[in-house]
Design brief:
The complex is a heterotrimer.
Chain A lengths: L2 E4 L2 E4 L6 H7 L23 E4 L6 E8 L4 E8 L2 E2 L10 E3 L3 H15 L16 H10 L16 E2 L4 E3 L9 H8 L6 E4 L6 E4 L10 H7 L5 E3 L12 E6 L8 E7 L4 E7 L12 H4 L13 E5 L2 E5 L1 H14 L5 E6 L4 H15 L3 E5 L19 H7 L5 E2 H9 L5 E5 L7 H11 L8 E5 L4 H4 L3 E4 L8 E4 L5 E4 L12 H11 L9 H7 L17
Parallel strand pairs in A: 1-7, 18-19, 18-21, 19-20, 21-22, 22-23
Antiparallel strand pairs in A: 1-2, 3-6, 3-7, 4-5, 8-9, 9-12, 10-11, 13-14, 14-15, 16-17, 16-23, 24-25
Helix pairs in contact in A: 2-3, 4-5, 7-13, 8-9, 8-13, 10-11
Chain B lengths: L20 E5 L11 E7 L2 E8 L7 H5 L8 H5 L6 H16 L5 H29 L3 H22 L8 E2 L2 E2 L7 H23 L3 H7 L7 H7 L4 H5 L6 H4 L20 H25 L18 H6 L1 H12 L7 E8 L4 E8 L7 E5 L1 H13 L4 H10 L4 H5 L1
Antiparallel strand pairs in B: 1-2, 2-3, 4-5, 6-7, 7-8
Helix pairs in contact in B: 3-4, 4-5, 4-11, 4-15, 5-6, 6-11, 14-15
Chain C lengths: L2 H11 L3 E7 L2 E6 L4 H11 L4 E9 L10 E8 L6 E8 L5 E2 L8 H12 L3 E2 L58 H6 L28
The chains are: A alpha/beta, B mainly alpha, C alpha/beta.
Chain lengths: ~550, ~400, ~220
């Protein structure tokens, strides 16, 4: 592999890599604002200027202040090159920490902060702002300009999700390049010149494509802020865990940011993964974190005497055990969920097949939605492939379950999750099953959120959401990805697989699955790449 | 049982058989100030063995420092030797500045010196006054505490608090001296002199005082050195070691002062040394007040370590960012470890700090002078009687906060 | 503070020295753990470093398993030449290190504190017990994996052996007079003294040495 020298260190690079990209691959950061590994090169921030010592060096004539003579004298300085634009070459010698490079970084940083508003206390980017970090490493000094900063529009509504603040903007054009190149919707552009520069929308348009929150994500400063996250949490209180988006079958990798003091998830951020989502996520995916805390089922429910009663979790477990214990052999339907992790589905399938002799397996999930060429998959469920892979027999669709119930071949159902593709009318037979007479309640549903399938159940058992447990999702391309537990589930609630084991133990079954590791070891090896842990990219 | 007569040198003495008695003294005891527990093995009234058990005031100073930022150590440092808090503040600030390689303006160094020496004076006044009171002499205690209170008034005027003021900062002090600083300090010096003179007049020729302090609590030089004693304990045995003279820091090499040294290592020597040190400290303060620049900043202006002016914080983005970084992440010294030591009230107060380059200290070790002095207390007490524990323990000026941290 | 000492150390005990450093004027030499006492004796005898200043440790748990996690530090100086040196060595979790009490008597309490705070046992220490914490304390506080907000289990009052004439350890500790049992008083009973210290009139029993009711 060809290498070049950066600050005395040999850096390997692939042909076509720029200096900054080659360094980035090795985990070395050259200060930059406008460069992004997933976008084209703009080279307008000039923060990544480095000194290239090899090859033909250009010296620029300048006037330098001589403190002794108290006048300007002729001098030269080497011409520095932007590391984001210059392609790395064999035997190149680059200095990013030489005196000239550091002086360039200091002056660039000073210029960027020249008209910047004093917004840190109210700016969402505080704590993860490149201006703050590079001030401390590069500028380290107070302001020399004594006049009023230039004022520009603040709090401009760009669309339903994004607010723009022109004073904070450093005109790096990352947002413009993103909507042009990745979102395929060139709605943003820059206007005016000099210190009246600002980002504007195309006339008559709003920033309303499916990837608007990514413009907030790429903005290195607090100019673009997301209305969903504004003023909700300070980032230095948030911890991160690697996660997988539950929005669709693409399975974009995420960072789940939560506050451990309140055990609450405040936002998702995309996690870099070259093979799945590169550096991006869609808006709907970014907003799936709301489901972790809204419309949650945290107590059990039992449908009795024509009413739904909330009961403590252990009572719900006992009721579920009763229903399962009384189920007629051969007439129990097991509904796996494409919204649940492979571990949950596997344990449900395994226990039902082994201890109940069940052979009727169905698969439920959310109905298809609008997909696109960029990231969104038409299948709105994260784990259809995983659920199919761990099911003991090939699962049938839910419409088949309805017809089986109507034909009388199914009298008891145990299902996972709140989601189903069936409409309310189509759900009626399942609803009727739950409220059948002779006191026999016959639909047990384990779920974290409320939903149509849950409303059609007679016993509802609370389980953890995706943020509260670890698990595996297999995406549409067959890549198995693991997500990790972030927050603690409220009072005593356990993951679905653990809850099923508890119910099984109540029924006297011998089950040898105590920890997640046991479940993963027992899952079929046919599961693609199940054993490998997804290595998280740097945050 | 028949008394057993043993022929001894003195025919009038009878040696009665007895078992050693174990007596517990402290930790809650008026004489064990700073909560120390001593389990004494007594033969009658004589001390055969003593097991000194410190740790009742252990508050986890070193562990607590690893939780906050570098500047958040100052309130903890105050509460180490809480009768001379400025000396601890200065000691820690000098340690971190040594690690960073930061120089502070001259005026700041003089300010630290003056406030530090005032703290030392109040420390010695307290110790001597309390020792005298424990021997029964209540009056000198009240006189010395009266002038100590005036010193605390000056501290309140300068720092806002009488005792634990957390006034030191890395890179200088929290605020510049007030306008009447020099006059206020000089105004009380005559009073201090007067109170000390009167106390000495009452005590130093008093038969009871002399009997209770002379030749009591002796410590030999070799023991003191091997034990790691420093400060008054070491100097009273005759070893001339004062950090300010041996390794001059701040501007102590610009001042003309003496270091009082005893020769017997008994309580009396320690008592006299303390009084003399007060006088020497007053001389240092007079010289420092003369030499201190009349105006100028007391803190250095490197905004990576020192908060910028509030007008800059509110009106410029760089000031805001500097303030933000200092408060949220803490100032970041380069990774490394240093040991920096100063002359605290009781001896060599050292801070050994380890930094990993982040805003949180990795390890802050305070080398407490009282720790090693208290260890030597056992040597001082062996052979003496119970009643001698009071003046001996009082004379080592064991401050619980510093000893146990 | 003393380059000369480092040079002499390299010369006389070069095989024991692992690393030397000079940072901001502090000279430090790191030696192998098994030469700890030998080098300490050499410092005291050959270089007249008779004044022990401090003995402490720092915990670097990320170094495990490649390197030992604790780093012991010894600070000494010479009263005659005013020179200072810092000596360091690395000790792993569970490993013992030689005690320096025979070299400098002041190391006694310093090593007890290191044992108390880090759990490093010292070989040859005359009296290795906890010094700052109480005996029943669980764990070693200054280790990085000891959480600062960990709560300790409650400890029952101790039975103290071999002590005469101590005030009764127990709920009535320090009480000069009998504790009034209010229930008995309200019931109108004659003897109203708390059962834990017994009747206080007439012959007094020996002072208790431990709790007398419901342990």
């Amino acid at each position: 592999m060809p290498t070049f020298k950066l600050d005395g260190q040999e850096i390997p690079f692939e042909p076509g890599d720029t200096i900054i990209r080659a360094a980035w691959r090795q985990g070395i950061e050259i200060p930059h604002y406008c460069w992004h590994p997933g976008l084209s090169i703009a080279a307008n921030c000039r923060m990544c200027l480095v000194e290239i010592k090899s090859g033909r060096q250009m010296a620029l004539p300048i006037l330098e202040w001589d403190a002794k003579k108290k006048e300007y004298v002729n001098a030269t300085k080497p011409k520095l090159q932007p590391a984001c634009q210059i392609q790395a070459q064999e035997d190149m010698e680059v200095e990013s920490k030489s005196d000239n490079a550091l002086k360039a970084q200091e002056t660039t940083q000073e210029f960027l902060l020249l008209n910047h508003p004093v917004d840190c206390p109210i700016c969402d980017q505080a704590g993860e702002c490149k201006l703050q970090d590079y001030w401390l490493t590069s500028q380290k000094k107070l302001k020399r300009k004594k006049t009023e900063p230039v004022h520009k529009p603040k709090g401009v509504r760009f669309g339903p999700t994004i607010v723009y603040d022109a004073e904070r903007c450093i005109m790096c054009t990352r947002c413009i390049r993103f909507v042009d190149e990745v979102a395929n919707d060139p709605v943003l552009d820059m206007r005016e010149r000099g210190n009246t520069n600002e980002i504007v929308l195309s006339p008559g348009r709003e920033l309303d494509n499916d990837y608007t929150l990514m413009t907030e994500h790429v903005c290195p400063v607090g100019a673009l802020t997301s209305r969903d996250f504004r003023f909700k949490a300070r980032v230095w209180f948030l911890k991160s865990q690697p996660g997988v988006c539950t929005g669709c079958a693409t399975g974009c990798n995420t960072w789940v940011d939560y506050d451990p003091r309140y055990q609450r998830v405040y936002r998702l951020r995309p996690r870099d993964n070259e093979d799945v989502n590169q550096y991006w996520m869609c808006d709907d995916g970014m907003l799936t974190y709301h489901a972790f805390h809204e419309d949650r089922i945290v107590a059990g429910r039992v449908f009795a005497q024509g009413r739904v009663n909330e009961v403590p979790r252990d009572q719900a477990l006992a009721a579920a055990a009763q229903v399962i214990g009384k189920a007629e052999k051969g007439k129990l339907a097991v509904v796996l969920s494409a919204q649940h992790s492979s571990e949950d589905n596997f344990v449900l399938g395994q226990l039902a097949a082994e201890h109940l002799g069940a052979d009727r397996f169905y698969l439920t999930g959310k109905p298809d939605w609008r997909g696109d060429e960029i990231l969104r998959h038409t299948d709105q469920n994260p784990n259809r492939n995983g659920a199919k892979a761990v099911s003991p027999t090939a699962p049938e669709p839910m419409s088949r379950l309805v017809s089986d119930i109507e034909a009388g071949e199914v009298t008891a159902v145990i299902s996972l999750g709140p989601a189903t593709e069936l409409t309310e009318a189509e759900l009626a037979p399942i609803q009727n099953l739950a409220s059948q007479g002779a006191g026999a309640a016959s639909h047990v549903n384990l779920t974290a959120n409320a939903g149509p399938l849950t409303s059609a159940a007679s016993v509802v058992v609370p389980v953890t959401s995706v943020a509260e447990s670890s698990g595996t999702f297999v995406n549409a391309d067959g890549i198995a990805q693991q997500f990790k537990k972030a927050v603690q589930a409220p009072g005593g609630i356990q993951p679905a697989w653990h809850t099923l084991v508890e119910i099984g133990k109540m029924l006297g079954w011998e089950i040898d699955l105590a920890r997640l590791g046991d479940v993963r070891a027992a899952m079929p090896k046919a599961l693609p790449a199940a054993a490998e842990e997804a290595a998280p990219a740097p945050a | 049982m028949e008394p057993h007569y043993e022929a001894l040198e003195d025919e009038n003495t009878l040696e009665l058989p007895s078992e050693p008695m174990r007596l517990n003294m402290g930790p809650s005891h008026p004489a064990m100030h700073g909560t120390i527990r001593m389990v004494l093995e007594l033969d009658g009234e004589s001390i055969v063995d003593v097991d000194i058990q410190p740790g009742y005031l252990h508050r986890g100073f070193e562990k607590s420092c690893e939780r906050g930022t570098w500047n958040q150590v100052f309130p903890y440092a105050d509460r180490l030797n809480y009768v001379s808090p400025m000396l601890n503040n200065v000691g820690f600030a000098l340690a971190v500045e040594k690690l960073i390689g930061l120089e502070i303006p001259e005026r700041g160094t003089y300010y630290r010196t003056i406030l530090g020496e005032l703290a030392r004076i109040s420390d010695h006044l307290t110790c001597n006054g309390a020792s005298a009171m424990e021997l029964g002499a209540f009056t000198p205690f009240l006189w010395l505490i009266k002038v100590r209170d005036w010193i605390w008034d000056i501290q309140e005027q300068e720092t806002g608090a009488r005792l634990t003021h957390s006034f030191g900062r890395i890179g200088g002090m929290a605020a510049p001296p007030t306008d009447g600083f020099k006059e206020s300090v000089l105004a009380i010096f005559d009073e201090i002199d007067h109170a000390m003179m009167e106390s000495e007049a009452l005590l130093l020729k008093n038969r009871i005082f002399l009997d209770r302090t002379q030749n009591i609590g002796n410590l030999s030089q070799e023991h003191a050195i091997a034990m790691g004693c420093t400060g008054i304990i070491l100097r009273s045995t005759g070893v001339d070691y004062d950090v300010r003279k041996a390794y001059p820091y701040m501007f102590y090499d610009r001042f003309d002062f003496d270091v009082p040294v005893g020769h017997d290592g008994d309580n009396y020597d320690r008592f006299i040394c303390r009084f003399e040190e007060i006088r020497q400290s007053m001389s240092i303060i007079r010289q420092a007040l003369e030499q201190m620049p009349k105006s100028g900043p007391v803190s250095c202006d490197d905004v990576r370590y020192v908060y910028p002016d509030k007008s800059d914080v509110y009106n410029t983005i760089e000031g805001t960012i500097a303030h933000f970084k200092l408060v949220m992440e803490g100032l970041k010294p380069p990774p490394g470890e240093v040991y920096s030591f100063t002359e605290g009230g009781n001896g060599e107060l050292g801070f050994y700090i380890v930094s990993d380059g982040s805003g949180t200290p990795y390890r802050v070790r305070c080398r407490p002078p009282c720790w090693y002095n208290l260890q030597a207390c056992r040597d001082m007490l062996l052979g003496d009687m119970i009643a001698d524990i009071i003046p001996t323990f009082g004379s080592i000026n064991m401050i619980g906060g510093e000893c146990d941290r | 503070m003393s380059k000369k000492i480092i040079d002499r150390l390299q010369k006389d005990h070069g095989d024991a020295v692992e690393e030397t450093s000079d940072f901001r004027g502090d000279h430090e030499a790191r030696v192998k753990a098994k030469s700890w006492k030998k080098v300490a004796l050499w410092l005291r005898d050959d270089l007249q470093m008779d004044h022990l200043i401090d003995l402490t440790a720092v915990d670097y748990p990320e170094r495990e398993p490649e390197e030992p996690r604790f780093e012991m530090k010894l600070f000494v100086r010479s009263t005659k030449t005013n020179e200072r040196i810092r000596l360091a060595t690395r000790v792993g979790d569970g490993e013992k290190i030689d005690s320096l009490v025979e070299v400098w008597r002041g190391a006694n309490w310093a090593e007890r504190e290191v044992f108390d705070m880090f759990g490093i046992p010292f070989e040859g220490h005359p009296d290795l017990r906890r010094i700052l914490m109480y005996e029943e304390f669980e764990g070693f506080p200054l280790r990085k994996d000891y959480p600062i907000d960990r709560t300790q289990p409650l400890v029952a009052y101790r039975k103290v052996e071999g002590t005469d004439k101590l005030p009764p350890f127990g709920p009535d500790e320090g009480q000069p007079w009998g504790r009034i049992d209010w229930q008995k008083r309200l019931d109108g009973e004659e003897v109203q003294v708390s059962p834990s210290i017994g009747v206080q009139s007439g012959d007094r029993k020996a002072l208790s040495t431990g709790p007398e009711h419901g342990e």
